[in-house]
Amino acid sequence: MTIRSPWTCILWDVDGTVVDASEGILRRLTIALTHFGLPAPTREELVHWIGPPLYDSFQANVGMTGARASEAVAYYREIGKKDGYATGARLYPGVGELIAELDAAGVPQATASSKPENQVRVLMDHFALAPHLRVIVGATPDEKTLATKADIVAEALRQLREKGVDTSRPVLIGDRHHDIEGGAVHDVPVIFVRWGFSWPHESEGAQAIVDDAAQLRALLLIEDDE
Length: 226
Hints:
By secondary structure, the chain is an alpha/beta fold.
């Protein structure tokens, strides 16, 4: 039996798709918002924060100006640096194993995350996933220079092509409408995972929707009888 993929490469969103970092995010947001004289978010409100760039979220969610949002992002990042970016983080069930299996099957993979790239690297190293990825792409530290999902998807595809990867049939795995919108800019279909932080309507426009890693595997790997 041989195992292959219908896709030539796979892009992974990170927060809410591969890694559940909500415990640390909630703690750091609580400290940051309190510091700026704002109420702490509830766990239910994390859906508004996980996914989009924090620079945008500080403006959209609590009405900060652009300048104030830049200050808040910098303060939040300092807390994260002291905490350790992997503190309290965990992999979603079966996802790490699937990434390893895809690599073993010869399927090129990359991250395409709105999380700052230095943090993505720490998480991928922490969970021993970095060796299974051809490239690791995330946002720039300021979350402004390279931050939109469309730009990040483009950069991930560019770096894969530089390594000789066939990017003619890519797919993005994500859990927010930003993933679907960003993928659409480059005609990259999205498989939407329901285990992340999203509202039900956010899956609109996805090529497929899955509830667990087994369902996702069925869409990413095909077993052929020899």
